[in-house]
Amino acid sequence: MPTPLEIKKLEGILDPLVKQRYLKYFQLPQDLRRIIFTTETAGKIEAAAKKSQLDKNQLWQTSYTTGMILLGEINIVDFVKTLQEECQLDEASARRLARDINQAVFLPVKQSLKEIHQIPEWPREDESAEPITPESVIPTVPKPNEPRIEGNIVDLKQE
Amino acid sequence: MLNHKKKYLVSLSLILAVGFLGIFVFGVKQAEAGILDFFVDFSFEAIAWLFAKIGAIIHSIFAVFFSIAGLLLDMAFGLEKFTEAGIVQMGWVIVRDLVNMFFVLILLAIALATILRVESYGIKALLPKLIIIAVLINFSLVIAGAIIDFSQVLTHFFYDEIRGNTGVSAQLAKVANIQKVWELNDEAAIPEKVAGGVSGIMMIIFSIIFGIILILAATLAIGAGAFFLIVRLIMLWILLILAPLAWFLWILPDTSKFFSQWWSSFLKWTFFAPIYAFFVYLAIKAADSGSFNSIIQAETENIINASGWKQTLGSSLAASPQLFLQFILVIGILMGGLIAAQKMGVYGAQGMISTARKAGKGTGNIIGRRARSATTRQLTGEGRVGRVNKNLDKAAAWMMGQRGTKTAGRLTRQVGKIPRTLIEKERAGIAKIEKDKYKDWTSDNIRSSFSAADASTKIALGRILASRGDLKPDEKLGFSEQDIQKTLILAKRYNQQGDMLKARPDLAPIIKKPDQTDQQAIEEQISKIKPADLDKLQVEAIEITGVQEAIKKQLTDETGKWRNNHLSKMAETNPNLTVEIRQKIIKPNAGGFRDDIETFIASDAGKAIYGGQGRQKAL
Fold first, then answer.
1. How many CA atoms lie within 13 A of B373 on its CB side?
2. Which of A49, B140, B460, B509 has the fewest CB atoms nearer than 10 Å to its CB?
3. Backbone angles phi, psi at B479, to 5 degrees
4. Is B605 in contact with A60 (Cβ distance < 8 A)?
5. A149 strand-pairing partners
6. Is A5 on the interface with B (CB under 8 A)?
7. Separation CA B95–CA B98 (nearest Å)
8. Which residue, among B171, B182, B272, has the nearest Cα to B222 in the 3D structure?
């Protein structure tokens, strides 16, 4: 429940929708409340948008949708679909954008999101932030001239 | 020949030594009859007699001390010249005349403090005190004399009862049975004690030591009482002589504690006499009473019936057990009374001072409240006094070296150091008011009690409201916008305006610097706001166009100090302000924000809560 001080803070807001959403915000778990307005979250969304080469309008819509999910207004299962519709992206781009935001923003607070969205399992939890490429699968072999590094110890005998 | 004589003397000495050894080492009963009996009886009687005589001499010497202490006590109770004493009459006049000269200095201090706007030393705080004390100083001896006379009446109430024809000390000696000490050395009782053998001699020795202790204790008890009564007289003389100075020191806040100390000391010593007289009265009356004697009788029997290792001491005390107990009880009450008189004097004085203060505050508050609200109005620049103050401001500016010569500047800088500490004190006082009294009050309660508050309290109340983001008028509660503005001016004097301006930067022009425009004053204030302060920034301030422009400047100019975490913190802690700023400043068609701000606006997830659909359409 919002505290009397929090209710007092909403006294002057005339727009009922904004008032209602702030009320909902005050009832969110602390970890969700902590991340919604932060510059870090905004930075992560911006980074994901940049990666997907979104324009300013698409960035705006993406951050709005992310906020709505953190608030519990849009269900997490509809995330890809909403992004696809609001940002006018194809399914693959929307899925990739959703995966990046999921990894950066949602996963650290997934327990609270599970509670407010009332879902037993987190969708796409196992997905990696980076797309799997052949480079990420083949282990890197050090060149013969380079000193072999094992842990923190440099093998100078190989020099 | 000489050798022969020496041999005789050595032989005689040996016989005597062996004889005495026989007496003391092997006991009286082992001494044989005949010539040795004679020697033994003679030696015992002689030693006992010698001890008794020595005891009597020692007791007599101590008795002289006891008599002196008794005489001093009687004399000390009779000392009654306080205000009439020549030294007091002369000394008081000298100090009064000296203090009358100091009034001129105080007037100068008040003038200086009023110019520099040091509230606690200002004209409204000190002038009434100055006038009261200027009048009262001339009556300080009469007022103090009346209090001393009252205490003397109380003292005589007890003293006249116990004095009798012989004096207090003789009465005390009588009820303490001190004369019985001499009965212990009675020569007639020596043969009886000698018959008791070694224990008889021990009894004589105990009696002597015991007697000394009794006389000494009685001397100390009576002497200490006499000593303190004499000290009282001297202390009261000194306090009466210094009365004009002590009363004068009440005027200045920093020296008023000496006035309290004077009263505390004065009342303590004044009422020492009646309290001590009461305990002497109690000791004499109690020792004379029947119940007291019956308790003593019971205790006497306990001592006589004592056995075992206490036997010797017991038998010694048994010679005069009544003396012992009666004595302890009388001396105990006297010594206890002396301590109680000291303590009660101190506590009584403190009690009286605090009661007087409360009574003074009660009546003072009624008059003071009206006077303060009137003078506060004047000091903020209204009316004739306001005009005078403005002129004084000009004089202060000149004095502080802005227009004067270097010498004047140097001089005034030195003078300026004095009020600086006073201002620090005033600031500490404001902080204390905030912390102690009003911290837990509701904002409405604070607003409703605002008009009755004095200047320092008003500043404290203004700061509390500002810290809550509640610095807004409520005409129903008698708290107007004008009150807020006046409080800000008052706060500026003590450099306490910061919090109020963080809540209401729109008020910055009221206390702007001489070379600033209104907008510059607002911009300076807005630029000082940190993200953590944004929960206090009130919506009322955003209504003002100048404030909106100043905030926009912070978000658009490259030199602007507001960053995206200002917006982030504002959305988190101040929803109402966020909505207003989004509608009025970061509105749909607004542009030109710095890149970092623009990017944050676009990528902020918080827009899901505070809205911003219109801006999205514009983009």
1. 11
2. B509
3. -120, 105
4. no
5. A154
6. no
7. 5
8. B171
Question: Whole-angstrom Cα distance, residue B323 to residue B269?
Answer: 34
DSSP reduced 3-state for B352 = helix
Q: In chain A, what residues touch B542 (CB-CB under 8 Å)?
A: none
Q: Is residue B491 part of a domain?
A: no
Q: What is the pLDDT along chain A (159 residues), one digit of tens a residue?
A: 778 888 888 888 888 899 999 999 999 999 999 999 999 999 999 999 999 999 988 999 999 999 999 999 998 888 999 999 999 999 999 999 999 999 999 999 989 998 888 887 776 555 544 433 334 333 444 444 545 544 455 555 554
Count of other CB atoms within 10 angstroms of residue A8: 15
**Cβ neighbours of A10 in B, within 8 Å:** 575-576
Q: Do A70 and B605 touch (CB under 8 A)?
A: yes
Which amino acid, B508?
Answer: A
| Biggest CA-to-CA distance, chain A | 75
Pair B463, B430: CB distance under 8 Å: yes
How far is residue B299's CA from residue B317's CA, in Å, rounded to a whole number? 12
Instruction: Give B406's contacts (C-beta < 8 A, 6+ positions apart).
Output: none
Q: Which residues of A touch B600 (CB under 8 A)?
A: 39, 42
Domain residues for the domain of B557 are: 530-619
> Of B372, B392, B414, which residue sits at a domain end?
B372
Numbers of helices and strands, H then E, in chain B = 28, 0
Q: Which of B372, B389, B404 is the last residue of a domain?
A: B372
ipTM score? 0.78
Residue listed under structure tokens 């978000």: B555
Name A154's bridge partners.
Answer: A149
Work out how many domains chain B is built from and give that number. Answer: 2
Chain A residues inside the 8 Å CB shell of B576: 9-13
The answer as to whether B523 is a domain residue is no
Task: Measure in Å the smallest separation between the Cα of A80 and chain B Cα atoms.
Answer: 16
